[in-house]
Amino acid sequence: MCPLNLVFVSMKHILQNTFQPLATANTTAPASSPKEAPQQKPSIIEQFMPFIFIMLILYFLFIRPAQKRARKHMEFTTGLKRGQSVLTSGGLLGTIDGLTEQYVILEVSEGVKIRVLRSHISSSETQQKEQESSKTSSSKTRG
C-alpha cells in the first residue's frame, strides 16, 4: 500500500473515531447492538503515518539543502590556496597570505594583514565574478 494511501486511511480512522461519540450520543439505540460490529482502532503505524510524512517533507525541504550548502562550503574552505583573492562574510576583500588549520591570514591592503577564521571566508573573487555575470545575463533576458 502506498504511504500516501496509509496517511489518508489513518486520517479517516482518526476522524471516524473522533466524531463517532458525538454521532452516537444523539441516538436512542442501546450501546451494545447485535447488528453493529465493534469498530477496529487504527494501528500504531496508521496513527504515526501523518507525523512521519510531515518529517520527511521537512527533511527534504530544509535539512537536506542546508547540509548540501554546508558540505559545499567546507570543501571550498579546505581548497583555499595562498595568493587567492577571497571575500569574508563581513565584507572584507583580501588576498590569502597564510593558512593554518583554523585561520586564514588576509592581506587587505599593502602591509595590512588580518587573521580571519576559515569558516568566515564566504567566497573567492572568481566565484563573485561568476555570480555577477549570471545576474547580469539573467536581468538582460528579463528586460
Describe what this molecule looks like in 3D:
- This protein has helices at residues 3-25, 44-78, 125-142, and strands at 85-88, 93-99, 103-109, 112-117, 121-124.
- With 143 residues, the protein is of the alpha+beta class.
- A hairpin with a 2-residue loop joins strand 3 and strand 4.
- The model has no long low-confidence stretch (mean pLDDT 82).
Q: What are the defining features of this structure?
A:
53% helix, SH3 type barrels, 3 helices, single chain, 143 residues, elongated
User: What is the residue-averaged pLDDT?
Assistant: 82
Based on secondary structure, the structural category is alpha+beta
Helical content class? 40-55%
Q: What is the count of structural domains? A: 2
Q: Enumerate the strands of the largest sheet in spatial order, edge to edge or round the barrel.
A: 4-3-2-1-5
Strand content: 15-25%
End-to-end separation in angstroms reads 50 Å
Detail the poorly predicted runs.
none
Give a brief rundown of this model.
The chain has 143 residues and is α+β, with helices and mostly antiparallel strands. The chain has three helices and five strands, in the order ααβββββα.
Write the layout of secondary structure elements.
Blueprint (H helix, E strand, L loop, with lengths): L2 H23 L18 H35 L6 E4 L4 E7 L3 E7 L2 E6 L3 E4 H18 L1
Antiparallel strand pairs: 1-2, 1-5, 2-3, 3-4
Helix pairs in contact: 1-2
